[in-house]
């Protein structure tokens, strides 16, 4: 939760540190996730008007990764394009500065952390409830049994009724 909160608030350096404290292999084994975190860091520099720092960061940290992976290069070019516009709200890649971009990156980090901890990315309860409903539908055709009709209260229905 602390990592997700850090990304959502724009504190990417803190998020990277927390991920590495949790499990350093997460970023080592997932270059796309690491790139997206670094890309988000670049976006935050641009958002805060730190143009020179953003350019230096892009050249030193992100450009080498773009050379290794063509899709990273395309994303980097889109991000750096933000610097070409004075009014980023009307530029073609302005959506990168939206909060939704932070949420997207935070969700990606969260999924990687859960996967590294052998948790599912999606909660299990909805799947279990679907299985319960399916099983009850199968049983309805064969036997009378105490059926759960209201899932929110989990009260049993008397089969004799």
Automatic annotation (TrEMBL):
Signal peptide: none
Regions that span the bilayer: none
A Pfam family this chain is assigned to: CTLH
Residues in CTLH domain copies: 1-53
InterPro entries: CRA_dom, CTLH/CRA, CTLH_C, Ubq-SigPath_Reg
UniProt-recorded name of the protein: LisH and RanBPM domains containing protein
Species name: Actinidia rufa
């Amino acid at each position: 939760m602390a990592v997700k909160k850090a990304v959502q608030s724009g504190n990417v350096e803190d998020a990277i540190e927390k991920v590495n404290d949790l499990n350093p292999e997460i970023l080592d084994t997932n270059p796309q996730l690491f790139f997206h975190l670094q890309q988000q860091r670049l976006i935050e520099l641009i958002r805060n008007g730190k143009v020179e720092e953003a350019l230096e960061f892009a050249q030193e940290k992100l450009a080498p990764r773009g050379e290794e992976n063509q899709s990273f290069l395309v994303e980097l070019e889109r991000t750096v394009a933000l610097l070409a516009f004075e009014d980023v709200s009307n530029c073609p890649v302005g959506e990168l500065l939206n909060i939704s971009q932070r949420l997207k990156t935070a969700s990606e980090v969260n999924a990687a952390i859960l996967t590294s901890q052998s948790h599912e990315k999606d909660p299990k309860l909805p799947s279990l409830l679907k299985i319960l409903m399916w099983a009850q539908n199968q049983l309805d055709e064969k036997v009378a049994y105490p059926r759960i009709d209201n899932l929110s209260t989990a009260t049993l229905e008397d089969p004799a009724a």
